[in-house]
């Protein structure tokens, strides 16, 4: 369910309503949440938190999906990708988090930010921070995976930073073939071009993805865009 406004704006509306009507803030928050289609503010908060969004998105994924998760810096795309991997792991999946951006200590710190204790995470959650990460490296690591797997790769623009690696289009095609043949799911985190900050739209879309070279983004089966607490998840038109 999409909110009429971002969370921070809804909170501001509730504060103004509480002041104008002389009711307690918690009552104003509950009233506003009910207008948004939720039982209470706590219900709204739970459903729209990173864990709530992750649970909702996982329910909509299908075997063989190749998903793009994209946002501007500071919007929580990496944290959301990590939450998805952890949620999938809790649901009995084998999950993998490959990152070219962060160190193991960085990722463990983010796991703590999500309210998780690293030592309590299942051994079927796999963290890989190798400098060699690219499509072929990822597939080599998944070669013997028999259990249903969800894979997060952080992030798209870094996959071809080494000249020895194939171009992004080739790597995405390789990943797409893998998901189609195995039924595993891969989620790719991506940057959004800075020009989006000046755009008159609430959320980025495929046209806002920052790319050094031309890449066929319709290779992805689904997209997930984040901005200021809003999340939009949709299927990609493969005929584009």
UniProtKB/TrEMBL annotation:
GO terms for molecular function: helicase activity. InterPro entries: DNA_helicase_DnaB-like_C (IPR007694), P-loop_NTPase (IPR027417). The keyword Hydrolase applies. Keywords: ATP-binding, Helicase, Hydrolase, Nucleotide-binding. It comes from the Bacteria. Coiled coil: none annotated. SUPFAM superfamilies: P-loop containing nucleoside triphosphate hydrolases. Residues 57-112, 141-214 form the SF4 helicase domain. The keyword Transmembrane does not apply. PANTHER family: REPLICATIVE DNA HELICASE, REPLICATIVE DNA HELICASE DNAB. This is Replicative DNA helicase.
């Amino acid at each position: 369910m999409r909110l009429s406004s971002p969370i921070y704006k809804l909170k501001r509306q509730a504060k103004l309503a509480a002041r104008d009507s002389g009711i307690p803030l918690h009552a104003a928050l509950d009233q506003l949440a009910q207008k948004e289609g939720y039982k209470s503010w706590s219900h709204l908060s739970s459903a729209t938190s990173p864990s709530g969004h992750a649970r909702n998105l996982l329910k909509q994924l299908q075997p063989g999906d190749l998903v793009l998760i994209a946002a501007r810096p500071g919007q929580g795309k990496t944290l959301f990708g990590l939450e998805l991997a952890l949620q999938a792991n809790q649901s009995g999946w084998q999950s993998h988090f490959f990152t070219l951006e962060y160190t193991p200590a960085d990722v463990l710190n983010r796991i703590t930010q999500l309210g998780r204790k690293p030592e309590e995470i299942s051994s079927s959650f796999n963290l890989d921070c190798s400098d060699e990460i690219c499509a072929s490296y990822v597939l080599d690591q998944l070669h013997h995976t028999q259990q249903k797997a969800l894979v997060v790769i952080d992030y798209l623009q870094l996959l071809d930073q080494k000249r020895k690696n194939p171009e992004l289009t080739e790597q995405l095609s390789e990943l797409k073939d893998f998901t189609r043949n195995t039924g595993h799911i891969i989620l790719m985190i991506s940057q959004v071009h800075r020009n989006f900050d000046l755009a008159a739209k609430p959320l980025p879309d495929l046209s806002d993805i920052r790319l050094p070279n031309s890449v066929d983004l319709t290779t992805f089966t689904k997209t997930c865009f984040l901005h200021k607490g809003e999340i939009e998840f949709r299927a990609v038109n493969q005929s584009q």
